[in-house]
Amino acid sequence: MILKAYQNSINIKLKSTAILLFIIVLIQACSSTKYIADYQSIVKKVTIDSVDAKFEEQAYNYVQKDIRPASKLSIQVPLYNLFNTKDGRYKTSDIKPFGTPPAILDSTLVEISRTQIQKFLKSKGYRRADVKAAIKVADKKAEIVFTAKPGPAYFLDKISDSIPNANIKNLYESNKAKISHLHTGMQYDEDSLTYEREQIYRIMKENGYFYFLRPYVNFDVYGAEPTSKTNKIDLNLNVTNPNNGEHRQFNIGYTHMIIAPNPDGFPDSVRYKLNKDTINGIIFTDFSKRYRRNPIVRYDFLKQGDLYDIRNENLTYDRLYELNIFKNVKIDYYRRDSTSNKINTVIQLIPQKVMSNRVEGEVPFNGGTVGFTIGNTYTNNNIFRGAERFELQVKGGLQSRIGNGAKPFSDIYQRDFSISSSITVPRLMIPFYNPVLGGNGMPHTTFASSYIYALQKDVSVRRIFINSITYDWFETKSKLHSFTPLNFEYRFGYLDPNVDQQTVLNNLYYSTLLGRKDLTLGMKYTYTLNANKLNEYRSFVYLRAGMDIAGNMLQGISGLIGKKGDPANNNPARILGLPFNQYMRPEVDLRWYKHLGGDRQFIARLNAGVAYAYGNSVLTGIPFEKQFFAGGSSGIRAWQARTIGPGNYDRGLLRSDTLRRAFFGLDQLGTMRIETNFEYRFTVAKKFLGATLKGAAFVDIGNVWNLRKGESILVANPSLDEQTIFRLSKLAQQLAVGTGVGLRYDVQYFVFRFDVGLKLKDPQFAGSDQWVIGKFLSGARDFKNTYNATHGPDTYRFIQYNFGIGMPF
């Protein structure tokens, strides 16, 4: 009782602190003016009047940031006030990196803003634009009004060009329809001229004009003077020649690829020791003696005799960096003499450290358990001297029951151990076929093998061997294909002979899953769209859809050799003395990323999957590891992973304390999953302990279900089995709903994440009792005491904490 009272005291203090902090922030939101001097004012509103609606947002961007007021719903200024005020004034030193300071009126910045808005309007065709600024101040609060008199818009009347070089003229004319934004009758816009210049420069650099520069493209504008009596403009495009003659096209000569002796770079003596052997137009010199020639030169796309193309240069940069063995890539060119139309390429490569070692760990816990997981990953990025990546990971962990005065790790009920290795080769290794890919991304072939050991105290032991070959390649930069033609799994599990037989009978299906011995031979395919945009602030749709299918080939083989078996009567066909699995498992992850301006983003996500056993597995069902679970740091974050469902499953219906304790901590799984997540992301502080602190608010909804009867955890009780089956008519009753907030500490290469999830609706209860948020707000202690008495050793937690590395999705 003393422990419970102490825990309740902590909860009350935490809630009181949160409420107090909320009140302080609200008070600070209304009190910024008291921290400034009497002669100062805080800008509360900025208005831009009489500007065409389509240009309003762009015009506002020219208002200087220091005089832009924060949004009324933003807590950035209140946070700043909370941490950066002292003795009734804003601090001038020791500024804490929280929030954003208020917008203090500065007449100089107002004038700069007015001038910039006026220039912007003129660049958009309002050549006679005039902008005035007015400032209204009352009670140390300021409003700025920019009033524009744009005048008439100017439009293009005649468009001509002067391109003396016939070849360049032809290039421009042949590409004009695809690249040009200029046309007669359009409103004059300097951005369109800049775009035209950039497109011409790009085409020139893609067609051999190595020495072409942007200033060679310029425009003559006639009739654009504000004093002009007409609002029509004539435009002439010029592509001028250099002073020493006409523009010339260049071809690639030979390429000299040089690798530095170590990560420190090139010593001065390197130039005296260069290799002179040319193979297929490439001279390869490796001072480090670490790399084989072919795996490296394969990704030099600047081929001898080809017309110079800047796209091939960029492609070479991208692929050599993607080999992940060079920390610096530099491409230079030189000509042997001024009359030659060939440029020779020099590619300088500085290697990075080949080997690395990473140790990771986590401490998962809830109200009744505590544990840890620790792993070590060794990586060698050049194990066979051809940029092959070798990875060896060893990982182990355990979970222990706590409570009733027991010391942590005195009652360990779960142990896990795994060891895995993989070799990834930067090309597609396909027998009798050598495809040349890499134009859109680095292709890979991965050979992987792993061993998994899992012990559930007094229940079961599982051992799994997995071997696979996977090909990854890019169709475009946004479309990734992953195909595993061979995925072999050998599964060996057995039940503990000391397990309670009544436990086995009441959980027959679960026990069968854990104790089965079988093998799987199948293939997988995954298609991913727009993964390259995940770290960008833009609006797009992300898709990851895959299919895992197994057993069909073995089914055909068993038929050919006369060992069909009788799966419907629990006599499956066997290969090498073991039954084989036959199933299909489609899964889809669909997301909509909506950019809301700045660092703000909204994400809506649907993650769904189905695992369907048939043929040789029609009775034995889906393997344990292939089933779905809900909850966790990347799912429904108000629940710990594998503790929701299936359906309305309620572990409290196991009336025996012995049964509940025997199955305490066992995963709650299903053969179908539907999860949806809605998350709003924003920046809290751009400079926080040397990194960016970001925030998130989210709502998660979903569950897992079984597709058929007999797949339930409680098949001994048909009425309970029915509660786990997916029924569209009961969908609303069977959904778990959680909400929460989170922080992300972004150090550029890693994002450390902390989320706090709060249960709103729990499907293990019935009717209005599912809305447990009501119990959290009132009567939480009595509710938890009642739950613990009927579900022990399980305990109820309204709040779940999640730690992780990387974004949840």
UniProtKB/TrEMBL annotation:
<keyword id="KW-0812">Transmembrane</keyword>
<keyword id="KW-0472">Membrane</keyword>
<feature type="domain" description="Bacterial surface antigen (D15)">
    <location>
        <begin position="486"/>
        <end position="770"/>
    </location>
</feature>
<dbReference type="InterPro" id="IPR000184">
    <property type="entry name" value="Bac_surfAg_D15"/>
</dbReference>
<protein>
    <submittedName>
        <fullName>Outer membrane protein assembly factor BamA</fullName>
    </submittedName>
</protein>
<dbReference type="Pfam" id="PF01103">
    <property type="entry name" value="Omp85"/>
</dbReference>
<dbReference type="GO" id="GO:0019867">
    <property type="term" value="C:outer membrane"/>
</dbReference>
<keyword id="KW-0998">Cell outer membrane</keyword>
<keyword id="KW-0732">Signal</keyword>
<dbReference type="InterPro" id="IPR039910">
    <property type="entry name" value="D15-like"/>
</dbReference>
